Amino acid sequence: MSGEQGTSAPTSTPPTDSTTALSALSTEALIGSGQEGGLMDQVRAWLQRVRGGDMGALPAVGGFVVLSILFTILSPFFFTERNFANLLTQAATLVMLGMALVFVLLLGEIDLSAGVTAGLTMVIFVVLIAVVNLNWVLALAIAFLTGIAIGTFIGFFVAKVGIPSFVVTLGLFLGFQGLELIIIGAGGLYRVETPEILAIQNGTLPPWGGWVMLAVMLAISAGTSFLDRSRRTRAGVPNRTIALVWAKLITILVLGGIVVAILNQNRGTGFKAIEGVPIVVPITLAILWLGTFVLDRTKFGRYIYAVGGNAEAARRSGVKVATIRWCAFIVCSSLAVVAGLFSISKVGSVDAAAGRDIVLSGVAAAVVGGVSLFGGRGRLIHAAIGALVIAVITNGLGLLNLPAGVNYAVTGGVLILAATVDAISRKRAGGSILRT
Amino acid sequence: MDQPIIELRGVVKSFGPVDVLKGVNFTAYPGKITALVGDNGAGKSTLIKGLAGVQPYDDGEVLFNGEPVNLHTPRDAAHLGIEVVYQDLALCDNLDIVQNMFLGREELAAGTFDEGVMEREAAETLRQLSVRTVKSVRQKVSSLSGGQRQTVAIARSVLKKAKVVILDEPTAALGVAQTAQVLALVKRLAEQGVSVVIISHNLVDVFEVADYISVLYLGQMVASVETSKTTNEDVIGYITGAKTYEGEHA
The ABC transporter domain covers which part of the protein (chain B) (predicted)? Predict the structure, then answer.
């Protein structure tokens, strides 16, 4: 009955017949927009949404904090400047792959071949440089075109032919491993020699660069917030209290400031100082911002959510469902290439098994972060946070010198826990349909 | 009598050897509610799908405000201002009310959503229909009751100044209080000059809201009468084929 009781909005004597209702148009707000009230009202509304099952990334953030505290207590090395930077670069590949997968997971689809797409395109990339002696920029362009072609291929079979994405991408998962073997040969390995690629994970911004990065983030965040507010004001609809904007900006400033300050410490062990924000961080943040912008503010993004929520409703509303599906797979495969770049930059080499193990971790990252496997719910930041949780587990357990088996078992347990949270929150959110 | 906004003359539709519509005449007037009743398989859905442009008629004439028109695609129908609210509500659970109402026709400014304008128009439309049961236009549809969902679906259809709204079984899945809510909403639609065509199996609802009742029986329009000039028993007779309508078709 929750919705039915909602008439307690600030209504002054509701009109009884429809003629007075028409004349009363626009003079009284019968229906709210959820933007009214002060800071406390907004906090209360948010708590209500969380209780209703709309938890978003909250469990993952909680998990991240708890695990970090736990490992800080258990290992003296966990909370050091060096390990902090290490954690970010270790997580980068998974963050990018998780964000790539969000685009298809939102549709209720899956791309099991995202990992080997990253692997295969990187095999092609390094072989083109090492064997064909191609310019690295050209080789990179070919790697990206290959990624786009792979996404186009998957999208065609899923959206046009109508094969379940699970089957198509499982086929590619096997096929691409074969292709990698054929190109590189069993046991083969190519070193990555391109300094620009190695710099992604190993290079750092100068210390002032980190602060510039933070300033840009604050400026963009403030800019979009105030632009949104001015648009809403022009349309004559209420804005949320401005305190929320300040709260958001201060959070970015404080958290970002701490991160940049830690990363700007010298973490080198030898004579050479290593300091500054790893270059991979601003690249990841830029893609995160761009992807979120597309998902939240453009038709393509909105239609991805709509198709994931109810494809038939989207079709009747004039959404070209097949095209949306197709494009989502292309975006996923293209971002998988970026994940591949992060990976070879960190590892420094490519072998015939590149990308084989990582795809399920990518799916796990997204689900742990709060992206629904059933489609329609989730954001890019969720996948990024989920990936950080998984990276913390791997990193922390590694520091404790626990066997790799424990790592897999714990990660698996966390995944099941996260999927359970997803299922329960879905039930709660959906349950209100029945409570008429 | 006023000029009908929609007039079908002798429309025919067959699927292979099966003649579903055998030369049907049908009219709907602006500001009036026309109920389309008939047993399962009588051809109600086929008649509606033709009007929606989803399944064009094989033969016959469609007049819109007295002018012959072609209805070959949903776009044709939407262009004329004909909107259909389907039985299985075409809403996305994971989106909020505003997002659902504007799905497929979002307001843009500089290539990105102008959420303020959409929110205002959605709220205004709901307000015009005197909808008071939703708390916020930013509620997710998953949190709405069946009646509220039907309300949103109907409001969506009139958002862009529809002239004809076709409702397919709008009260089929609803409880008593919510049915009353939706029927009141249907009346308000008509009061605003919209021509409403309502398909229903529930004759109590039909007699409560409809100005005219059109009865389909095995692909033929067996009766089109003013509600005030007929009775429940008569209409049941027409639906089941037990009784033949003698008078002039309204």
Answer: 6-243
